Amino acid sequence: MRSPSLFAPMPVSPLSEKIAESLAILQALGMPRAQLNDRSALTLLALLDLKPAGSWQQLERPQIGVTPIMDWCRDFYSTTYAPNSRETFRRQTLHQFREAGIVLYNPDKPDRPVNSPAACYQVPTELHNVLLTYGTPKWESVLTEYLATRPTLTAQYARARDMELIPLQVAPGTVIKLSAGKHSQLISDIIHEFGPRFAPNAEVIYVGDTASKDGYFQREQLAALGVEVDAHGQMPDVVLYDVARNWLLLIESVTSHGPVDGKRHGELSKLFAASKAGLVYVTAFPDRKTMGKYLADISWETEVWVAEAPTHMIHFNGDRYLGPHQI
């Protein structure tokens, strides 16, 4: 006869139990199937600082960023994610949490730049109060009441986000919205101040870091100039096309990923190698003080423009001022 112990149920670990409960909550909140996974479950637990031995009746509301969330998953749930998983967390979990009203983005400073290392997320008070009842007799009724008001709350959060966006006209009748912050202000200055002075009547081909995940991209126009790009993340911050001179101006805002240094110059040269238009590389700075920090890094045969002195350009060597160079 077999020992009864062979048929005893396997014990459920506190780690897997909390993950299962978190998944059940996400499902109850109506999250799509693509977000019903361990990554999203752990993210919710991190946003509540709910450790394996913790209680749903003792939840916190920390303001926490993407990397700290990943570190928290490793430290308390023994789940390690590769550093390059940051974008997966951001785009495949936190973006959907934000749209659903499960988290607020930068509640302490809504105008924080999107590329700021201080960017953070926090569970709204309304949802936090609901989750405190999970596992109690009140859960079902409190959840039902919350779900009835949720569309109103989500719309309220969306309006608050929209108020923080910066409108930017890129063509007659075409206005896009930039995420708030110094970076977006410099992008606006490039379009409104640099362009009219140094590339009059130029067409805006590309603007990155907009409220839309795809940015503003005249992909067909760029393809007509011989350049086809698969991942727009490789693009500079702004691309202008000077029709009269047949130039493509590739402009980097130093407030995003730094200046056009030797490495970036090589990347852009390769990306735009098939261009039928001449290539002009430009680094834009908000002021001379910021420029001073990067002078040693700026590549030769490139241009520098400073927003606080918009009528001037600084040329880094080469055979001509403001124009394509033969390499």
TrEMBL record:
Residue span(s) of domain BsuBI/PstI restriction endonuclease: 167-318
Ranges for the BsuBI/PstI restriction endonuclease HTH domain? 17-154
Tell me which InterPro entries the record gives: BsuBI/PstI_C_sf (IPR041963), BsuBI/PstI_N (IPR041454), BsuBI/PstI_N_sf (IPR041962), Restrct_endonuc_II_BsuBI_C (IPR009528)
Q: What is this protein called?
A: Restriction endonuclease
Pfam family of this protein, just one?
BsuBI_PstI_RE_N
UniProt source species: Hymenobacter antarcticus
Q: Which domain of life is it from?
A: Bacteria
